[in-house]
Write a structure and sequence with these properties.
mainly alpha, two-stranded antiparallel ribbon, 19 helices, 6 strands, about 65% helix
């Protein structure tokens, strides 16, 4: 009789539960050990060269807002710690020079011999972005770090395209990526490095699922993998489009699980990924608050977290009104105002219809496509729940709708298994893989598991 719980996955789950916060703490302390002067001297040089200024927001090449405000706050994490605060305490308290309006003058003053004081403590987040930004800025400077981010973003998009193409076909992969690359500020993300890091983690998580999970991997493996990816996103990216990352991980998990056997097997693995991701995201956040309570003080952490939670979930902002749909409408309008939307959306819908017609003989059961399409709902629910946050930050939270649109196009056109295999049990790991005839009429194509493995 098969056990109710996959013991191996359970052991791995418990190990990961403990290991993720421990690793996070180690990384942020290591980042804080980098001498502040190395980071500040590079930033000061770029200030003198006019490459970094005190404007917190600017307009990017795609016409959207470039968020220097958040970038300066994350780029100066660890700077301005008071005398006597050690690196461990600094890593937990997370002092920051604040937005560009305050950070740039403070760095100028430091270069002139003035003392450097924090603007405030930012201990609500892990700020794993500092693990990337502090060493990168210290070595390459801000401009060099932007170039590195641009290269990684391009590489991540290519890797995702190739991974999806192997699973569901080139046309479906292109249809999925087009909204993200062409109806958002993807090309401008290196100008706001914290957003670039968030998108790299988002796309990288999807690539990891496609590369390392098999259709017949146990349900627990899907859950644990998604848990790690959810925790990693929280660590590195804070609240830069977490719903997009969540939806994308669940969608590629559904793609991967599509050949697991009966529709129930696909649904179980997809649901496990959905639950694993959000639990990992929440656990990583909670673990920072727990660690901070020992250093900052329980009452201080409790009061700050409670205030911010109430503000983000139900706070009042000028122009928002009482509507629960305020955040959703704000971000939705931002997406519809993207310059390529009027042209690209109809073209993509027509292209999807053509692909669906060409693959009409390869259509999977409609239930499989529903499961694959379901993650597109995540951004809409997130925008409803996080009403105030998505209203205030609609100029970047809209990216999630581009991901949702891509998921819908993917679900409609993906080359998926056409039958319900009866010889593969729900937890069978025999490695048998259903095959799908190619629409060219040539050799059947393995639709789910890469034969190269």
């Amino acid at each position: 009789m098969r056990p109710m719980v996959d013991r191996r996955a359970l052991v791995w789950g418990v190990a990961v539960l403990v290991a993720l916060p421990a690793l996070a703490l180690l990384l942020v302390v290591a980042a804080d050990l980098i001498p502040d002067r190395l980071v500040m001297s590079k930033m000061h040089t770029e200030i003198l060269e006019g490459k970094l200024d005190d404007d917190s927001y600017s307009v990017g090449n795609a016409g959207g807002t470039v968020d220097g405000h958040s970038e300066c706050k994350r780029m100066t994490i660890g700077l301005g710690a008071p005398p006597g605060m050690n690196d461990f305490e600094s890593a937990i308290w997370s002092p920051t020079l604040g937005s560009c309006e305050t950070a740039v003058p403070k760095i100028r003053g430091w270069a002139d011999g003035d003392g450097l004081a924090r603007s405030y403590y930012y201990f609500r987040y892990w700020h794993g972005s500092a693990v990337v930004l502090r060493p990168s800025v210290a070595v390459f400077g801000v401009s060099g770090t932007r170039l590195v981010a641009a290269g990684v973003l391009a590489g991540a998009a290519i890797a995702l395209a190739l991974g999806l193409a192997r699973r569901v076909g080139r046309s479906s992969a292109a249809l999925f990526l087009a909204p993200l690359l062409l109806t958002t500020d993807y090309i401008d993300l290196p100008g706001a490095l914290v957003h670039a890091i968030g998108m790299i983690v988002t796309v990288g998580g999807a690539v990891a699922i496609l590369r390392y999970l098999r259709s017949d991997s146990p349900v627990g493996t899907y859950a644990v993998t998604a848990f790690v990816l959810g925790g990693a996103f929280n660590f590195f990216a804070d609240l830069t489009n977490p719903d997009a990352a969540w939806a994308l991980v669940v969608a590629v998990s559904a793609v991967t699980a599509a050949g697991a056997g009966p529709i129930g097997s696909m649904a179980k693995r997809t649901t496990a990924a959905a639950g694993g991701w959000i639990i990992g995201f929440a656990w990583m956040w909670l673990s920072k608050w727990v660690v901070a309570s020992f250093v900052v003080g329980y009452s201080t952490v409790r009061d700050v977290v409670r205030f911010q939670a109430e503000e983000r979930l139900a706070g009042d902002t000028a122009g928002m009104g009482d509507s629960r749909l305020a955040g959703l409408r704000s971000a939705w309008d931002e997406w519809l105002n993207e310059p390529l939307i009027p042209l690209l959306v109809p073209l993509l819908l027509v292209a999807a219809a053509v692909v669906m017609w060409r693959r009409r003989d390869l259509g999977a059961t409609w239930q499989r496509r529903v499961v694959l399409c379901a993650p597109a709902v995540i951004p809409f629910v997130w925008h409803l729940v996080m009403r105030q946050h998505t209203f205030v930050h609609g100029w970047f939270t809209y990216r999630s709708f581009a991901v949702a649109f891509g998921i819908v196009l993917l679900a409609a056109t993906a080359r998926l298994p056409t039958t319900e295999p009866s010889n593969i049990d729900d937890e069978d790991n025999t490695g048998q893989t259903p095959v799908v005839p190619d629409n060219t009429g040539q050799t059947p194509v393995v639709s789910v598991v890469d034969q190269a493995r």
